[in-house]
UniProtKB/TrEMBL annotation:
This is Delta 8 Fatty Acid Desaturase. Keywords: Heme, Iron, Lipid metabolism, Membrane, Metal-binding, Oxidoreductase, Transmembrane, Transmembrane helix. The keyword Acyltransferase does not apply. It is a multi-pass membrane protein. Residues 14-92 form the Fatty acid desaturase domain. It is found in: Membrane. The gene is SLD1. Its EC number is 1.14.19.18.
Amino acid sequence: MVSHATTMPLHVQITLSHFAMSTADVGVAESFPQRMLRTTMDVDCPAWLDFVHGGLQFQAVHHLYPRIPRHNLRRTQKLVQQFCEDVGIPYALYGFVDGNRQVVGKLADVGRQAAILAQCQKTLAQSADLGMH
């Protein structure tokens, strides 16, 4: 139980930063920064919580610049946000609650898709049983 309680904040942070974002491969026309900003989100929190998050709340910035020290991530985030605004690239930044809403919404979408696929599989199996395939 101690090991799960200890690693839970890390798991929640990584899930929050990645699960709600697109994983589509849009091909070579997409630049590296566009892909990194499309597939991750940052979590908005006050600066005094930076130590608790360990810098993981800056996933988009971390994916763009993986070697930047944690103490520079907040400053770099502002520069990246300005760049995104200048060139028209969306920058996903959500509070903890809204970010979790995004994750739960994405998981609900995946659940609906899985239910549709299961129904299709059931229908195809019934058609095969009736000799209609």
